[in-house]
Amino acid sequence: MNQTTSAETDAASEPGIFELLDVQKVYQVARRNGLLGRRKQDLKALDGVRLKVAKGASIALVGESGSGKSTLLRVLLGLTEPSDGLALYRGRPIAEARAAGPDFAREVAMIYQDARGSLNPRMSVGALVAEPLRHFGICPEEEIPARVEALLARVGLAKEAVQRYPAGLSGGQVRRVAIARALASNPSVLVADEAVSGLDVSTQAQLLNLLRRLQREMGLTLLFITHDLGVASYLCEEIAIMYLGRIVETGPTNAVLSAPAHPYARALRIAAPEFFAPITEPLPGEIPSPLDLPRGCRFAGRCVFAREECRHDDPVLARAQAGRSVACLFPLGA
Ligand SMILES: Nc1ncnc2c1ncn2[C@@H]1O[C@H](COP(=O)(O)OP(=O)(O)OP(=O)(O)O)[C@@H](O)[C@H]1O
Ligand SMILES: [Mg+2]
């Protein structure tokens, strides 16, 4: 397993599968402005994101609602273009890679958060799994039924499932169909947005086992958005913690979670006592509006360790010890 992924973007090292170089994504949003009516304002959904995803890496993207996780995935999938900075797939701009032909879509598969909503309710499971096989011309028509059956077996569904429709499937089965569709094109990268949320604990555990096994067997590069640090540490060797459009800490999951260097990473860990030592110390204050970012470090207003400098200087993600990077003027444990 490749352990070299980090937010570091040394020119000397080989290009990653994905590389984000100071990526910004700015949305124009309407904002009420008293008697003057509506006014357009910039919302920085991503604000200088640096990330390198090495081949075979498994990375959990973690952070509060609105921190930019889905926007980051949309950039990686080429569904939205950065407003500034560079987003590369195998060393070339993602937009160019996407436009060049079907290879990008075949190699980079997505599992959507709303798995049920992503499946056409009028198509049977067999037709749903056959669709990407045909679309990408993976095999001759006569081999499709056998391929569909093999894909269903791979995700733990019986061959009888081919005749069923999404409405008759449980939440866990629907996710398995979505995973089978994602795997149909033989991708090298699997991108998932909250793929196991909203399920009961045992179904979630079964799906996590399945994803972990598939990732290892197929050597997939995995990018997995989750709110759940337990899921992140079970499934992903690396973690990237986001706060208000930035990655504030990244590195090996267990190292980051057992000794977080960024106060926000520490606060997240404390908020998950079911997986870690129960320390009750809630994160003070509210997440600031991305329309009104504070000066200096964007986390300073909620940080129990903030010093005067933190109100003025905006820390960038910088390499810390052992493959870790942190965006903090005074990292914990340093
Ligand atoms: N199309 C859009 N137009 C305007 N603002 C947007 C758009 N998409 C996202 N945003 C804003 O960008 C910020 C980041 O949103 P994003 O959906 O990436 O967050 P997230 O981390 O995925 O949150 P969640 O955990 O709730 O899914 C938020 O403030 C959101 O309101
Ligand atoms: Mg999201």
What would you note in describing this structure?
Helix content is 28%, strand content 22%. It is built from ten helices and twelve strands. The chain has helices at 69-76, 94-99, 103-107, 125-135, 144-154, 171-183, 201-218, 229-235, 253-258, 263-270; strands at residues 18-32, 38-53, 58-62, 84-89, 92-93, 108-111, 189-193, 221-225, 238-243, 246-252, 318-319, 325-326. Strands 6-7-8-3-9-10-12-11 form an eight-stranded mixed β-sheet, sandwiched between helices. The chain has a four-stranded antiparallel β-sheet with strand order 2-1-4-5. Helix 4 crosses helix 5, helix 4 (125-135) runs parallel beside helix 6 and helix 5 crosses helix 6 (171-183). The protein is globular and about 70 Å long. The chain starts with 17 loop residues before the first strand and ends in an 8-residue tail after the last strand. It binds adenosine-5'-triphosphate and magnesium ion. Residues 27, 29, 43, 45, 63, 65-71, 290 line the site of adenosine-5'-triphosphate.
